[in-house]
Each structure stands twice: as C-alpha cells, then as structure tokens.
Amino acid sequence: MEVTSRNGGGNVLARLKGESPLVDNWVVKAHFIAGISCLFLSVLAGLVFSTQFMRTYLFPGIEPLSPGKLRFIHTNIAAYGFLANLFFGMLYWAIPRLTGLRVWKRGVSLFLFWAWQAILLASVVGFVLGYAQGVEWGETPIFIDPVVVVGVILMTINFYVPIIKTKEKPLYVSLWYFTAAFVWTGLVYVMGNYLPQFFAPGVSGAAIGGLFIHDLVGLFVTPLGWGMMYYFVPLILKKPIYSHALSLVGFWGLAFFYPLQGVHHFLWSPIPMFVQYGAVTSTIAVEIVVTTVVVNFFMTLRGSGSILKTNIPMRWFYTGMVLYFITCLQCAFQVTLTLQQVIHFTDWVVAHAHLVMLGVFGFWLLGVVTHLWPKVTKREWWSLRLNVWHYWLSVVGLVIMFTDLTIAGLVQGFSWKSLQIWEESIIASMPFWMIRAFAGTLIGFGQILWVYNLYKTARFGKPLEESLPVIDREIEVAPASMTRPALAS
Amino acid sequence: MAKSPIERFSAIFLIAGLLFFAFSFIASGLVPWLMMNKVPIKSMDDLAKDIPPSFYELAKEYPKEFKQHYGEANKESFKVALEYGRDLYIAEACWHCHSQQVRPVSNESQRFGKVSYAAEYSNVLQMPQMMGTRRVGPDLIREAGKRTNDWHMAHFYKPVSVVPVSVMPEFTWFFDQTKRPNKKGLAMVTYMQWLGSWIKDTTDAMKQSIPAEHRK
Predict the structure, then answer these.
(1) Segment A192-200 mean pLDDT
(2) In the beta sheet, which residues pair with residue B181?
(3) Percent of chain B predicted with pLDDT > 90
C-alpha cells in the first residue's frame, strides 16, 4: 500500500503547521470515556434487571429503581450512551483523517459532547421519575426529544463540513456510510419519536414504530459500524479492501433494502399483509447484500489471518463480523411468517438484540477503543494480558447469553403454542434466566478488567515511543490509496 | 481511474440518504397509514361513552380511596383514571413484558380471546401504540373482566400471592401505608379492566376465532 495520499499529504502538512491539530484528541478521549462509562452503567442496569427474573430483585419496593425503569436505562444507555458516544469519538478521529480537514468547529464539538451527556443524564432522570415515552428504543422523554434533534443536526453539520470540502473525490467507502448515516439518523429520530406519539394511531403507528426500531439499528448503528470497519481494517492490515465493486454492492444494497424492513417487527399484526410480505422479502434480500460485505472483508483478511493471534482490535473486528453474519443469517430465517408464529414475543428476540447491539457493533467499538486508546493517551497498554481477558470474557459471556436465550425463546414459544397454562412457560424459563444472569456477570467482569486497564494505561502506561513526528503519523493513515488498487485492477 | 458519480457526496446524500428513505417511508409507513385513515381516532370522550362495570365496582369496593382520588364514578373520573392508568403502564415499562396483541397464530385466540383487529387500536390511548415487544407475562388486550378488581389489587401488591411462580415486580407504590390502593393503584386497575372491554360477547368472539372443524 502506498502510504502517501493524493491530496492528503500536502494538505495535512500545510494545515498542521498551524496550531490546532487535525484530530482533536480531547474530544475523542472524552467521548470514549463517556461511552465506556455508559457501557458500564448499561451492563449494571441489565444485570440488576435480570435479578427480577430470579425473584431476588436487589431494590424491592423502591419506586424510582423498579425493574421496568432499569430496563429503560439498560437499553437506552446502551444505544445512545455506549454505542453513540463511542461512535462519535471514532468519527472525530476518522473523519479528519479521511478528509484531511478538521471538523467544522471545535466549539461545536465541545458543546455537543457536553450536550449529549446532559441529554443522557436527563433521560435517565426522566425514566426514573416516570416520564418515559412509550416508543420502543425511543423512550427518551418527549420533552428531551427536540434537544436531541437539534444535537443531531449540529453533529451532522460538524461532520459534513470536512466531507463536503475535501478534495478527495470520489469519497472513500467509509465516508459513503458516514454521509448516509447522518441524513438517516435525523430523519429516523423525528419520524419515530413524533409520528406515533402525535399523528399515527395504533396500527399505522405500529408500522412507523417498526420502521423506527429497525432503522435505528439499520440506518444509524449499521452504517457507522461498517464505515468504521472500512477505515480501520485496511489500515491495520496495511492493504486495500479486496474488492471495490463488492463495497459498492454492499453500500447501495444496504441503502435500498435496509429501510424497507421495519414492519417485520409486527408480523401477524393487523398491519396490512402486503406491507408485512414486503418487509419479509426485503429482510431476506439484505442477507445477500450482507454476504457480499462479509466476503469482501474476509477476502481482505486472506493471507494475513495470523494477525488475529496477536492483534486484539482485529480479533474484535473479525469476531464481530462472524457474529454479524450469524445475526443476518438468523434474521433471514426468523423473519419468515412461519418462524414468527413461535418466536415472536419470546426471549429469542432478546437474544437476537444482544447479539446485534453488543456482539457486533459493541464488539467493533470495543476493538476501536482498544486500537486507539494508546494513541489518544500517548501511552502503551499497561497490560496486554488484561485485554485478552476482556476479549474472552466478553465473547464467551455473549455467546452463552445468545445461545441460552435463543433456546429459551423456543421453549417459551412452543409452551404457549401447546396451550400449557401460562405459568408453565415461566417455570421452564427459570433456569435459562439464571444462566442469562451468569453470562451477563461474565460480560460485566470482563468490562471491569478492561476499565481498570484503561485507567492504568492512561495513568501509568509507558509513554508511547514516537520516533516519527505526529505529522507523519497523520499521513500514514491518509485514505486515498486504500481502495484504489482494487479499483484499478 | 474511472470517474464514479455514485461515490460522490451529492449522490449519496440525495439518492441513498433522502430518496431511499422517503421510498421506504411511503411504502411501509405512509401507505398503511393512509389505508386506515378512514377509521376515526377515538378521543377520551368517545372512550368514556362505554364504561366497563368493573369501574363502578371499583368505586364501591374502595369507597374512601376512590372518593379521595377520583370523586364519583362517572365519565369524568373514568377519563382521568383511565388515562392515568395508561400513563403508568408506559412509565412502569409494563409494555416491555406484556403485549397487547392477539395474533391469529400459535393458538393465541384460544388462550386470550378474539384476534386483534385494526380498528380497536384507533384511539388516543394507543398513541403511541402498546402492541408490545415481549411476553414475560401474558397478553393483556383481552384482560377486561377476566379477573376481579381484588385479584388485580393483590397481584399488583404482591404477585406471588396469587400467582406463585410469577416474576412480576411488586408495585407496592400503588398502595398507601395501610395497603389500600392509592391513586395509582386505582388507575392501573381501571386500565387493566378496560383493555378489551369493548368486546361484548367474549365466548361468541372466541368461538368465531376458532376454525369450524375444531368447533364442537
């Protein structure tokens, strides 16, 4: 791979002669710290919630800490705290390097950082006091939603300015995904939080609510996640992505098919059947698209597979990709009306959600932070072994949880279908719920080790040996040559 | 190197970002919305035209508490209690462990009652809709009249006292110091006993939902 960029090198050099650096380290680090704190809070809330299922709830009789409220915290902080914060940190790192330009304004970045944390805090307070909105994944209290919308718009402008201004045209794959993700996120948020609440009642609200649930994963989390992979994987492997054509198919396929799937969350509901059939069809179609992307990445890895033995971030990335393939393959089957008869409303769905949000995008982000933490703190890892423990505890915990809840879902679904009395399904689920709590504990323990390592690294890690000046490190990651050889060949 | 217009910002922004999203919204959001546009959305006043008998019973069973929080049992107090009950249903995340949708599959109509139909969701208490996402406990859209007010009170206070294997939380804050229901407790039971109260003949409705060859 050529390490110089067509425009990046000179541009970056010229710009770096000024005072402010291309990447604002503080903002990246701040979002990482906030995101990891949220991961911690989310796992904790999930664990406490799971104790209710063993009838050993930790805070009985305390209204603000009721299990239902902790569930709001668990899911919302996972999505908007953990995933969103880490994504933002990653974007502040990647976009300036991909474009050779700073984000729009440092002041906006700082303001957005604090505003986002304020939104999260206000949401948690809102949940606890009973102001949750009745929209799944959109429980953020209704009076906070306008602030979120303004925040998303500002964030979009902040990142769009370098993307529009860059001379790097056509854009690199990562930037396709980032560009699209920002348009979608704002639209999805407004649609999902306002239409079912104020305009679309009941069944039509459910159709839109389904779109919202799915778009949040498919149009906010997924494009940012893949954009991130297209940036970090070739960079660490020091070779271009295998096929530019597959990248194109992957992006445009996702852009077309993913938004059409939402109604599959309400199959066998009174929503008109043709809409349900359409959602099922597009969901199965996206599996083909997903396959092209996964193939593209595994062909990129071909010949360099041994890096997974030594490079923990790469291990996170490719573990996530395997799990992503499993998720999407599972999705193509579970979305059929046949399987929905049994698995809808069961723990199968909960298993699927954990696999997607933590197993895929969570793991990728953990990988990115593991990759970038020494760079943003300018220190070497305090302990590489703890990172390995973090990896294994998280992966083993997640796989146990996924398998356990998937089986639990089948047990529950067939119990209901066979018209056993309801309580039988609870009794049968009990052992599964205990294993789920155990798996959650493993995941939580892994995160504790990691946070300890992150702290020790930031405080006591050996200073990173910088034989090259910062400028060269910036050029090293300039994007232009990442896909071009593949395109030319 | 080939020029590739679809890799430019403008193409991605306009086609992938705006156009595809708009298409998906029209196809799977707007079309079903417009199809059901002619079903009138019932307001609280419309809903209060049909008060289930359990609401009057509630006023008799807990006279002091009912009087204190809601006054007389009439349309006005019903509206207040019902809407507050729905708000609590959302605030306490009941809708994350209970569904409000009977599907035409998996023998659900035999377990819960009549299969859900579109018009019954067309009211202000289904904005946002409460069809649910998980069933740790049973579906609730046909709950009205299945159990007594007293049963619900005992169940909210200590679920295992009536359902020994239940994993439902104890909602002790729906009750005052003397374990009598407070404003929240009365509202929740009002809401529970309202869900499905618009289905007048449950036995007949249940029969109709069962295929003829299974009916004897």
Answers:
(1) 94
(2) B175
(3) 85
Between vectors from CA A388 to CA A382 and to CA A394, what angle results, nearest 5°?
120
Distance CA B159, CA B153 (A): 9
Amino acid type, A255: A
Q: Do A60 and B170 touch (CB under 8 A)?
A: yes
Q: φ and ψ at A299, to 5 degrees?
A: -70, -30
Interface of B with A in 80-139 (CB under 8 A): 87-88, 90-97, 99, 101, 103-108, 110-111, 116-118, 120-124, 126-138
Which of B3, B10, B21 is the best substitution to test chain A (most A C-beta atoms within 10 A)? B21
The ipTM (two decimal places) reads: 0.91
Confirm whether A24 is domain-assigned. Answer: yes
pLDDT in tens, A237-289: 999 999 999 999 999 999 999 999 999 999 999 999 999 999 999 999 999 89
d(CA A185, CA A328): 21
Any idea where the domains of chain B sit in the sequence? Answer: 13-37, 50-210
Number of compact structural domains in chain A: 1
Q: What is the pLDDT of residues A93-113, one digit of tens each?
A: 999 999 989 999 999 999 999
Range A60-89 burial, b when 16+ CB lie within 10 A, else e = eeebebbbbbbbbbbbbbbbbbbbbbbbbb
**What pLDDT was estimated at residue B211?**
52
CA distances from A292 to A236, A251, A298, A406, A429 (A): 21, 10, 10, 26, 37
Fold that domain B50-210 belongs to in CATH:
Cytochrome Bc1 Complex; Chain D, domain 2 (1.10.760)
Residue type, A139: E
**Closest residue on chain A to B19 (Cα):** A256
| Tokens 């997924």 -> residue | A222
DSSP code of B52?
-
Across the interface, do A180 and B128 touch by the CB < 8 Å criterion? no
Residue A333 lies in a domain: no
Is residue A354 one of the residues assigned to a domain? no
Domain assignment present for residue A17? The answer is: yes
Residue range(s) defining the domain that contains residue A140: 1-164
Using CA atoms, how far apart are residues B62 and A329, in angstroms rounded to an integer? 55
